[in-house]
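About this split. The held-out portion is used to measure sequence recovery: a designer receives only the structure tokens and must propose an amino acid at every position. Recovery is the fraction of positions where the proposal matches the reference. Here is one held-out target exactly as it appears in the evaluation file.
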């Protein structure tokens, strides 16, 4: 099993020490469909706004609350200079993440089924390409984790999983490459975690 973090392959047999967060198992069956590159990019950009949009809002709110405390031109100049630098840093990281996505998206989307391919999952089976696979009969070939960050810490979440069926068919499920991809990944990660966890702890794949 190949393990990668933000697209960077990790050495075989190496224990992953960073915290890994597994989201809850979806309570209902998941219906998903693969997306083309443009639709996947839109999904990715929307996901960034959960982080960066909140930061921009916090900056704007902080500015509004601070304006009454500015008493002269010098303090106003210093205040807005600091705000401008801070915004510049945030915009840099926002644009950097989008640039990285664009650099990798062609190869990433190229690994997915044709746009419009449907997939469904429940706690017992995954159905894709018209075939149903019990989770116990699927082998995890590769897992890619994404680094997530908050103000005080960072952690890993499952981003993509490559699976191999007993019939020899290999396919990728992807957080951004499918409509409802987040729920599809959550279902797969939870059901297949007994395969994945030992490798993260340094066991042979």
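Reference sequence for scoring:
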């Amino acid at each position: 099993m190949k393990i990668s973090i933000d697209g960077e392959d990790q050495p075989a047999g190496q224990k992953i020490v960073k915290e890994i967060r597994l989201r809850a198992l979806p309570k209902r069956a998941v219906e998903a469909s693969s997306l083309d590159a443009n639709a996947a990019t839109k999904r990715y950009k929307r996901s960034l706004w959960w982080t960066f949009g909140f930061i921009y809002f916090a900056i704007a709110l902080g500015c509004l609350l601070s304006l009454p405390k500015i008493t002269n031109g010098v303090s106003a100049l210093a205040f807005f200079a600091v705000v401008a630098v801070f915004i510049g840093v945030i915009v840099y990281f926002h644009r950097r993440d989008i640039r990285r996505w664009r650099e990798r998206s062609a190869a990433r989307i190229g690994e997915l089924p044709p746009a419009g391919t449907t997939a469904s999952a429940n706690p017992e089976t995954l159905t894709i390409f018209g075939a149903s696979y019990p989770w116990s009969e699927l082998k995890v070939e590769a897992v890619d984790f994404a680094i997530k960050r908050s103000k005080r810490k960072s952690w890993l979440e499952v981003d993509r999983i490559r699976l191999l069926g007993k019939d020899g068919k290999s396919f990728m499920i992807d957080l951004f490459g499918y409509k409802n991809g987040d729920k599809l990944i959550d279902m797969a990660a939870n059901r297949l975690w007994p395969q994945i966890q030992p490798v993260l702890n340094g066991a042979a794949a």
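Annotator remark: The chain has two domains: 1-35+112-205, 36-111.
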